[in-house]
Each structure stands twice: as C-alpha cells, then as structure tokens.
TrEMBL record:
Entry keywords, A to Z: Coiled coil, Nucleus
Coiled-coil regions listed: 43-70
GO terms under biological process: DNA damage response; DNA replication
Keyword Cytoplasm assigned: no
Pfam families per the UniProt record, alphabetical: KN17_SH3, SH3_KIN17_C, WH_KIN17
Main localisation: nucleus
Name of the protein this chain belongs to: DNA/RNA-binding protein Kin17 WH-like domain-containing protein
Top-level taxon of the source organism: Eukaryota
C-alpha cells in the first residue's frame, strides 16, 4: 500500500464500495468483495434474459386467464340451459270449452270441437318449437365447445412456438468470444465448444491459437456462416436440430433454414433469429 494513496487495505476496500466498483460487506471472517461487471455486452445479455423470463411469465398468465374465462363461460351456459321456462296457459275465448272423448266416441259439437282441434294444433306447435329450441341449443353448445377447444389449441401452438430456454450453449458448435475481460488476444475470436461444465458454463477451444478457456455463455455469441453451410438450432421450437442455412433477412435479423435431421427433415422454416442458431463445428 506504500505506493498508493490509501494507508490500509481496509480504506482501499471501503473506497471500492463507495465508488460502486464492487459490492463490499464486512463479515465476521473479514471483508467480502464481489466485482460488479459493467461490461456493456454483459449488461445487454442480462437484459435479454430478463425480457425472455418476463415474456414466458406473460404467456403463462394469459393462458391461465384464458382457460379460466372459458370455464366460467361454460358454467354460465350450463346454468342458463338448466333453468326451466314456465308460461301461462291462456284461452283465446272465455266461452269456449275443452272436451275430451275418453270412450273413443264423437265429442260434443260446436265450440267444444273447435277448441279441441285448436288445443291439439297448439300442442303440436309447442312440441315442434321446443324440439327446434333444443336442437338449436345443442348446436350452439357444440359450436361453443368446438370454438373454445380451437382457441385453446391455437394458443397452445403459439405458446409452443414461443418456448425458449435461458441457456443455449451446446457442444460442437462454433461461437465467438465477446468479453473484453480476457484482453484483446481473445476478444472477437472464434472458438469451438468442446464440453459443458453446467447449463451456463462451457469449455471452448480457440480456433486460431488452440487455447482452451472456461467461459460463461454471457461471454459468447452465436456465429452465422455463409449460406449453404450447416448450422445447429440452439433455441426455440426446433432446438437441437441440424439444418442448412438457406439465406438471411438483414432487416429482421433472422434466417431461413432447411431442417436436415429427425422426422422434420426437409422442412423449410423462416424467421429464425440470429441468436437461435450457430455454425456447426
């Protein structure tokens, strides 16, 4: 410390905390220091991860609310169908009488006969209307069920397409080192991922020098080869599949790929973001 402006290491540690360069905490075992990485690339990667997590949560909330709304509509429709509707029986004319012939003979003549015929016709019309209403209600209920099921299937498909993982590194792909913490010797250099230490840490081998480094995925980015070259899809709906790069869309930062592995071999997919595929080693 003789060559610095601080008299003790403790003063230097406190200064690091005040300047916001490190997280400083005094513990029973001594001072605890954690470096705060303010590299723009690291901050950008962290923001992207936060956006992805928020998007996944929003999709789940929308799906839950949609299903809850469909259940509520189904319950309301069922309750409405179960409620009986009562109507008042009215006569057209007070002087008319209804006569029934229980013995099978002829009924009384005059108004009584006309009233019997009128009642019979009214009964037939009521039964016909009731059947039509029941048929219409059943059709409406069936259409509502099919519509709700179609909407749920469509929403699940959209959710499946938007499924993403917060880790994308995998062996045998070409990546680029984007951290400056290792110096200019390794910055922007291409390497091949040889093995994974965990979901977010990989051992890479530099293509130029052959040096091996252990890096976090936030210090790496995907490499886009020339059209016609083989790539590996590292994120999204087609994660893990090999493909051929057909072309790129510079305006949308995406590419057109032809799947070249598995049951979907030969399928052409468009709109794959740059960060979702990388050159195959």
């Amino acid at each position: 410390m003789n060559s610095t402006q601080w008299e003790t290491l403790t003063d230097f540690t406190k200064w690091l905390g005040r300047e916001g360069l490190c997280k400083v905490d005094e513990t029973p075992k001594g001072w605890y220091i954690q470096y705060i990485d303010r590299d723009p690339e690291t901050i950008r990667r962290q923001e992207e991860l936060e956006k992805k997590k928020k998007q996944d949560l929003d999709d789940e909330e929308r799906s839950a609310k949609f299903i809850e709304e469909q259940v509520r509509r189904g319950r309301e429709g069922k309750e409405a169908e179960e409620e009986p509707v009562f109507t008042e029986l009215k006569r057209e004319k007070e002087e008319e009488k209804v006569a029934f012939n229980l013995a099978g003979g002829s009924s009384s003549v005059g108004p009584a006969k006309a009233s019997t015929s009128l009642a019979s016709n009214a009964l037939k019309i009521a039964v016909s209307v009731k059947r039509k209403d029941a048929s219409h209600t059943a059709d409406s209920k069936e259409k509502r069920k099919k519509s709700a099921l179609a909407e749920i299937i469509e929403m699940e498909e959209k959710k499946k397409k938007s499924v993403r993982s917060d880790n994308w590194i995998r062996p045998d792909i070409v990546v680029k080192v984007i951290t400056k913490r290792l110096g200019e010797k390794y910055y922007k250099k291409k390497a091949v991922i040889r093995e994974l230490q965990d979901k977010y840490t990989a051992v890479v081998k530099l293509i130029d020098s052959g040096d091996k480094l252990k890096l976090d995925q936030s210090h790496l980015e995907t490499v886009i080869p020339a059209p016609g070259k083989r790539v590996v899809i590292v994120n999204g709906q087609y994660r893990g599949m090999e493909a051929i790069l057909e072309g790129i869309n510079e305006k949308n930062f995406s590419a057109q790929l032809t799947i070249d592995s598995g049951a979907m071999k030969g399928k052409i997919v468009e709109g794959i973001p740059y960060e979702d595929f990388s050159k195959q080693a």
